[in-house]
Structures are given as structure tokens and as C-alpha cells.
Amino acid sequence: MLLFSRVQHRICAISVRNTNALVDSRCVHSGSITFLKGSLSGSVSTRQGVSSNSSSRPPDTSLFVPLSIKSDVGSDGAVGAELTQPLDKNELLKMLNKFYKRKEMQKIAADQGLDARLFHQAFISFRKYVLEISMLSADLHIIFNDICCGAGHIDDLYPYFMRHAKQIFPMLDCMEDLRKISDLRVPANWYPEARAIQRKVIFHAGPTNSGKTHHAIQRYLAAKSGVYCGPLKLLAHEIFEKSNNAGVPCDLVTGEERTFVDEEGRQAEHVACTIEMCSVTTPYEVAVIDEIQMIRDISRGWAWTRALLGLCAEEIHVCGEPAAINFVTELMYTTGEEVEVRNYKRLTPFSILDHAVESLDNLRPGDCIVCFSKNDIYSISRQIEIRGLECAVIYGSLPPGTKLSQAKKFNDPEDPCKILVATDAIGMGLNLSIKRIIFNSLVKPNINEKGEKELDTISTSQALQIAGRAGRFSSIFKEGEVTTMHRDDLPILKEILSRNVDTAGLHPTAEQIEMFAYHLPDATLSNLIDIFVSLSQVDGMYFVCNIDDFKFLADMIQHIPLNLRSRYVFCTAPINKKQPFVCTSFLKFARQFSRDEPLTFDWVCRHVSWPLVPPKNIKDLVHLEAVHDVLDLYLWLSYRFMDMFPDANHVREIQKELDSIIQVGVRNITRLIRATETNAPPGTNPLSNQRRLGPSPVSPRRVRGAPKAQDSGVEGWQLDKSLGSRLVQEGLLTPDLLRQLQKEWSKVHRQEEEGLLHKNSHFMGQKVT
């Protein structure tokens, strides 16, 4: 029996080795084929860039999620027990624990990709499998029996342990193939059509309001064919109209809209599009890439990288800040293309002031206060109204029509509105008559993949775009100024504005993720993205763009049965994840789609409760903005899944009606804020209308020098009973300013009440007459 056992053991060991060799061969073969395919397609991106020597970097094994192995009875049944003897569970446990403690085994496993973390997880799974299965396979049963009898060594378990480890961690067998797929060091090679022609690259360099884009557009209009790639729908729409007004037929392509000038739907030779929508396979004579400095943007930079490297145009006209010249020139060295630089000077003077504003009492006509949260917008616009001034309001979630309406109000010299309160939404696409830009803050709140709030300092490209809105050539102010609200922010702003552009963004494509999924078929999309980024290799000129929004949506719809390509497309949808109603709608859209049930116009109307009425308070206004975002989402999906989202034209019609309704609300925004404050229950912040998507938000940035609530010395105030008290508690107001506001509010309220009584008595007198 002992001799037979040893013979059986050797036969089984040979079988295991042959099986593993066959698996390795299949993985390497298929992986090399898919990599050749992947190297010719797509574009990529993430912030966690690494240098070109990253091939030796170990993967982040915390991202490797072990698969569950079913404890089924082997096909050979109880053969092992019949050939030897039944095994005692206690003895098995002792042998397994002894194997785990063997340092030699851990070292050998590490050479196979099992670091300490994975070794431990694999052992726990292997132990559970051995102890819980009713009958072990014959070969493994015989190995355990030999060890019990002293005819084998504890190390003989290693091949079976590794076989189990590769079952629960399938990426171990294909690690080199995964590394090849995620190798992003030569993105220029992803675009063979562009590399097949010798392109002429012209950089139109200058600050905002220097005429650089105008000169590039003139060449675009004179060409036989061309494409304009802009960062915003408003900019694409502006070029679309300018081109057609100039007698050059031009189509419009954005994420949510396709407009063809030809009545029969034939494509024009010219197209204006948002940069994510540009085609890298269509040949053009001239391509214009606007705002090239956004190639460094941590979320969208990949789209500029893709356009710059991939557009098939004889001439590439790049427009942007001078800070990006050296980087773009260096980037073009990798393609063998020279860069011609044309410099432009600002058409109007522009200066950074040496003093901060420090108080809203120091505002002047033509001032624009830039905030990075809607709560700040609401609060500041209310305080401006208290001072007897009118202000316009512009922020990102407003519909385009409402933004244009507010811009027109602010620009109108006959309108009493002389102050603008806005977010970074004014940075591009709106012509505004601004004398002075005032940064209320230099930090912008973001939401990470866990739904937690994080505060990040604004980027150089964001700061330059916003600051450059002051003193535009076409405005009544021929000189521009920029400063901050708080004194301590001014040197920080100057430092931000002086930085250069030094890296370009990339992003994983659907093709690359599909190749990953081939090797890791049981991994979730979010996990695939994590592993891709962990293994990705980029050189020092690139970084992988932020994928938090993508992962947020992937996790949200993971439980919904979708094929990988459709799931990927859904997760690239541009939605506002801060809005619960938008997230809920996204989830319902995906669920309806998975059932193969078209989302009709009637279905959408029921979902958003159409028709809607003008808002009565800020909460209503925020909800209307969320509904507008949901309709945007429908339109975006309708161009990717036309059969499932068939009623885009009807949805666009009600979206225009909704835009008009929102305009009414924004025109009366201070009245809505007053209504919100009046109706807010005690102990709540009436301007916090959005439920948090995470458990641990970051507190707002404190005003420098503002004391904490317990040190405030505000007498007679319950700190949890009013908005003002909460602002003091969070460090957003000083006690002195709060007392001043209290007095002003009381005075204004008395005047409003007296005015209302007078109006009512006058109205009643008319009625009696």
C-alpha cells in the first residue's frame, strides 16, 4: 500500500504540473493577442501616474478580491479514502497550520505573486475548502494520508495550495498579460491613423481675451473641412452658430445633442463638438483644440490628450495659456511633430491686486464674487441684497438658458443689477462685463468614491480661466482686476496662477477594460478599474485621470444585469452625484434598460412628475435643477442607445420649458432664500437641501482668524437654532459680523413689514373704492 501511495503521488504531481503548464500557455497566448489589439485602440487616464520604470512595481494586492470556490465532491468521489484510509479533521487542521507556518513556503509563494496578504487569504480559503468538503479529490487525499503516515513531507501540499490560490486569484496566472494591457507609456501609438500622416501643429498662445481662439477659428472657417473641439456645450454651440452664419455649413455634436444642418441628415464637412465627442478616425483639413491647458485636469484631461495625439487633421490648431507651450512641444516630440508657436497679447490690461476685498461693504459695480458651493452662493447673494444691492447668480447646475439670462441681466447697463455671484461656471462659454474677479475661496469641495466630501485647492487652469473673465475686450470695462475676499488667500492665488502645465491625463478605454475582463471574468467593473490603475505604467509626462465618479456609478449599478460594454457606457455618463434624485434616476434608467424595456416619454414624465411649477423656495429650485439634469442624462443615453431611449425630441421640448421655469426661480432667488429661512425647522440649516451621499463629510473651510463656537462670545444666541449661529459654529462667520448682520436683518425686516402694511392698506383702499 505504501509503495502504491508513493507511485500515485508522483503521477498526480506530474498531472498537476502539466495542467498548470497548459493553463499558463493559454493565458500567455490569448493575452499577447488581445494586447496587440489593444495597443491600436482607444485612449486612457488617472491621477496616480508613475514613471516609466514602474514595470518592477508590485501590484496593489489589496485590490485583489478572492473568488468563492464551491466545495463540490470531486469526480473521483471516495477513491482516495478507498485506496488509503479516512482522514481525521483534527489531523488535517494540524497539518494545514504547520504548512502555513513554513517560512520557506511563504517565500516560494511570494515568487509566484502571493505576497503576505494574498498568502494569508489563500490559506484561509484553502483550509476552509479542505475542512468543509465532504470528500477530497483522490490526489489531495493521498498526499494528506502520506504526510500522516510519515511517507510524505508537509511541503508536498504546496502544488495543491497554489492550484487553489490561482482559482481564487485568477489574476496570478495572467499578471504579465494584465501589465501589458495596462501599459500606458506610449499613448501616441494608440492612434495609427494620426501617426500615418505628418500633421502640422500650431499653438496659439495667449491669456484669456487675447484673440487666440478667434485666429484659429478663422483658419477653421477657411478650410475645406474642420472640427472644433471645445470644453463646453455653450462654446461648441457658439462656434456652430458662428460657422453657419458665416455661410460654412457646420454640424453640432455634444454628449446630449446632434444637430445636422443638412435636412436629410448628411454630415457637413465642418463640425463643432465638445472635446469628448470628437472623432479620431475621421480625416479633416483643420482641427481646433480649445483650452489646451485643461490637458492637466484630473477628471477630463484625458479628452485633450486623446484629441491632441489622435485627431486626423493636416493642421492641428491648439489654443491655450502660454504656460502649456513647453509641455505641448515636448509631448509632440514623442510623435515626431514640430510645434509652431504664435503668441498673442491680452487685448485689455489685467492685474492681480495687492489687497483683498475683506468685506462685502467694499463691493463695486462690475464685481464678480466667485464661490465653489451653492450654499455660499445663496448666503452671499442674500447678504448683498441686505445691503440694498441687486445681484445676478450663475452656477453649474443651472440650465444653459438660465445662465444666459442671468448673464444678460448682469451685462445690461440699464439693469440695476451690477454684482455677479457665481461659481467656476463663468470660466468659459459666457461673455460677461466684469471689472473685478473676487475669489471668495480657493478650495473646491469634491465627493470621493465613498461619498465623502473632500476639499481641494483649485487648479492653475481653473484659476486662469476664472481670473481672465475680468476686463474682457467686448465689455464696458477696459481693464481687469483679480483679488480674493480674504487677505490670507491672496499670496496663494498668486502662486497658483504662476504654475506651469506639466502632465497630461489618460483614461482606461472600454476595449482595455474588456481585455481585463477576459482574464478576470468574475471581477466587478469597479474592481477591474482599480486593478487596471494599480498595474498601469505611464511615463513622467502622463497621469491617469480621476476615476472616482466612474467607480461610484459602477458600484451603484453592479447588482443590475448588464453586459460589460453597456455597463461601461452607463458609468461614463456625466451625472451630478451630489443630487440624490439624479442618482436614483440613473439607477432606474439602468434597471429599465436591463429589462429591455424602452424608456418612453410617458415613462419619463411619470418619473419626474411632469408638468412642474415654479419653485416656492430653494429646495424646490434645487429639485428642478436635478430634474433638468435627469433630462440631460436621458438625452445623453439616447445617443448611445437610441432604441431604448426613443423619445429624445419630446424630452428636449419639456427640458426647454423647464429651463424657463428655472429662470423664473433664479430671478427671484433672494425671495426663495427668505422663504427657505422662514420655513426652516429649528436646529436645521435651511440652505442644506442636498442629502449627503457619505457618512463622514469634511467640515467647510473655516474663515482664517474666526474663533470656534465655544469661544465666540455671542450672547443670547442658541448656536443650534439658526443659520447664522451655524455659520459661526462652523467658522464661516465671525461673532462681530454676525451681530452686524443681526442688526441689519432686523432693520430690513421692519422695513419690509412696514412696506407690506402700507401696500395692503393701499390695496384695501382701492378695493373699497
TrEMBL record:
Hydrolase among keywords: yes
Its EC number(s): 3.6.4.13
Annotated family: Belongs to the helicase family.
Alphabetic keyword roster: ATP-binding, Helicase, Hydrolase, Mitochondrion, Mitochondrion nucleoid, Nucleotide-binding, Transit peptide
Domain Helicase C-terminal: start-end pairs: 352-517
GO biological process, one term: mitochondrial RNA 3'-end processing
Reactions it catalyzes: ATP + H2O = ADP + phosphate + H(+)
Cofactor(s) required, per the database record: Mn(2+); Mg(2+)
A GO term, aspect molecular function: RNA helicase activity
Positions of the UniProt region annotated as Disordered: 42-62, 675-715
Biased composition (Polar residues): 676-691
The keyword Mitochondrion belongs to this UniProt entry's keyword annotation: yes
Main location: mitochondrion
Compartment list: Mitochondrion matrix, Mitochondrion nucleoid
Ranges of compositional bias, category Low complexity: 43-62
GO cellular component, one term: mitochondrial degradosome
Pfam families the UniProt entry points to: DEXQc_Suv3 (PF22527), Helicase_C (PF00271), SUV3_C (PF12513), Suv3_C_1 (PF18147), Suv3_N (PF18114)
Protein name: ATP-dependent RNA helicase SUPV3L1, mitochondrial
